[in-house]
Please model this.
Amino acid sequence: MKPSRDVYLIGAHNTPFIGKFHPDFIWKKHPDFETKKNPTLQEYLATAALGALEDANLKPADVQKGFVGNFVGELFSNQGHLGSVLASAHPDFYGKPFSRVEGACASGALALVNGIDAISAGYDVVLVAGAEVQTTVNAKIGADYLARASHYETQRELDPFTFPALFARRTKAYVDAFGIEEADIAKVVVNAYSNAAKNPLSHMGTVTMTLEKASEASDKNPTFLTNEELKPYIKISDCSQVSDGGSAVILVSAEGLAKAGKTPADAVRIVSYGHATGPIEGPSDLTQMDVTKLAGEEAYASAGVTPDQIQVAEVHDCFAIAQILAMEALGFASGPGKAKEELIDTDAFALDGKIPINTGGGLMAFGHPVGATGVKQAGEIFRQLLGRCGEYQVPGEPTIGLTQNMGGDDRTAVVTILKRG
Amino acid sequence: MKPSRDVYLIGAHNTPFIGKFHPDFIWKKHPDFETKKNPTLQEYLATAALGALEDANLKPADVQKGFVGNFVGELFSNQGHLGSVLASAHPDFYGKPFSRVEGACASGALALVNGIDAISAGYDVVLVAGAEVQTTVNAKIGADYLARASHYETQRELDPFTFPALFARRTKAYVDAFGIEEADIAKVVVNAYSNAAKNPLSHMGTVTMTLEKASEASDKNPTFLTNEELKPYIKISDCSQVSDGGSAVILVSAEGLAKAGKTPADAVRIVSYGHATGPIEGPSDLTQMDVTKLAGEEAYASAGVTPDQIQVAEVHDCFAIAQILAMEALGFASGPGKAKEELIDTDAFALDGKIPINTGGGLMAFGHPVGATGVKQAGEIFRQLLGRCGEYQVPGEPTIGLTQNMGGDDRTAVVTILKRG
Model:
């Protein structure tokens, strides 16, 4: 979809993404355990939304429409009705039309898509916020909550950790078809942690990940599935993080841009999006991401852009194999099974590579507060295209970027293409 | 908001709304208890969506965008990611851009709002489906799930039945301020059941409700709150139903209308909507629905219509008091506290009254499968304006109708105005 009016992204804010292993995450061994609490879902939404408005040089009263991306606040935080929760963030939000959008781990990008359509429909200032809190329960209960992104009735039983098992199944199929090694897959993991170390907001920025550690299971990096067939195909380092956090961006029309006292040079344009869904029961070919492919094709065609023109990308690396499959589905490699030769062996996704990917650390190391992720991705490309990424800034003043956010086992996919100015 | 392009509603489908007391609802005393199951959330979505397409004379392949309204599928059905669930309904839905929208009990109307914006944004054929299944758990657990529509952290403790308690609090405030009697409130209840008796799809169509029964607590119509202060202010008959069901409508642009082989005379136009949210912590004045009032004012102003021009309305009667407050907020009475004199005493909301309301039985007697309700309301006005309501058809060929759908304690409100042709 090409927006019917120009859509400018003019402000973004990201809270730190935190959870287990992050120094500020409060848990039983943290010195503040008895006296302080981690931020709530409501607080993350408010911080992200107000921060993004400030970054955009706009006020809460200027907002004409708002969308919240969140997957399962009803479960982790006992709280739904998140449009109204966002309305609590500032007195001037009273009466604003806010709502929540859900598509599992693609909830954030779906909120963004609704925001883009709202600009096309005639609104001039739209707030898009995403957040998730997941650290309120233990890992097994959390895995059960997140299994609501799969076809629960038939897929839940695969393993207590349903999603790691679904992507272990992808890994097995890919290894069987194309003969990739664990050390190859490990390279995308190491890239993520290496980038996160340069990103002060990242969940895993203080954790070191070596190629050696990421390449084979060990006491410090164990396999953990119960399903014996799939167990060898995934270990802790292959997984994204169970993070808490919030992210927001401000979208405006040309009129909204003027209202914020900005010019196109201060902004990034979202020139197209692709959005596709597939049946919840699962994909037909485990070695390809067909729904992401469809969304990418739509986004490229609407923008009149080809994959080789993309200079920086945010890709949905909920698991290491997901990044590899997404890179192929998005056309960064020439076809299925080509990622190793064309991208992994050359470190093409590194900050100084041919196509830098997940420059702030991706879902694996920046972190993955589910509903925030798709919004964060847009904010990251915005910052990269405006040269605001500090230590992890991509060199060469990139002008075209891409985001890919995915729900479930490639059952929802959103791809956006952004251009500077 | 006035859509930037004409938005036509050209097809609708409603499954029966069922649950306790409905003859087809399968539970332990039903003859098919061991052999058959009630439909699932996924089945309701599919039935509603495909039925609406058939009613619109369109095929699944024609759909360009889809929205699902649902509140807490993650809890009642262990299933989120409902855009992908809808994509399973037909092979030709593969790849379509579907997503889920949530705003508590206003989820259905929010899906509709997104659908209207999508037409304004340039899509020509949009599917809007809503569904909820709530009968998978007992009433107390269900009440806890639904409490996610309130500010759970501070309001859950009000009563095991949080929402009935929140609206008992509204009733108490209204009674204290304006001196209305239980027998007055009972009249809106009796109207709902009387209308539902004429509606073959209604949940409570076979249940008789007399003014005598609805006017005071009894063994057959008990009060049920634990909160002693609020307990006298609500009894079973004042509540809407815990229903399962699905509803869908098809929205098209002028191009989509032509594609379906229809003319404006076969359709109803959604000429405007109002959408507002207030802070989740609750309203400041319990005797008024300030958020509904804002949404109504926006809808009226955008449409250039006044309340006295509305000839048929669907109003969110989640509780009897909610209908009374909504009628006042929407300007059907001249101000707060005026409903008794101006509407109730004259039976103005009856099928042959001045402003027929909830002609199919409303949430109290047609039923309230939460995410379906806002979609059903639009479908009902569509059918009334085209003279398709059979035994409960409003006389005099109405040409202008209104819907009001509400989330939580008037924390989200959506009002739409529809015109024939």
Summary: Strands of chain B lie at 8-14, 65-69, 98-102, 125-132, 245-252, 268-277, 312-314, 400-407, 412-420. The mean pLDDT of chain B is 98.
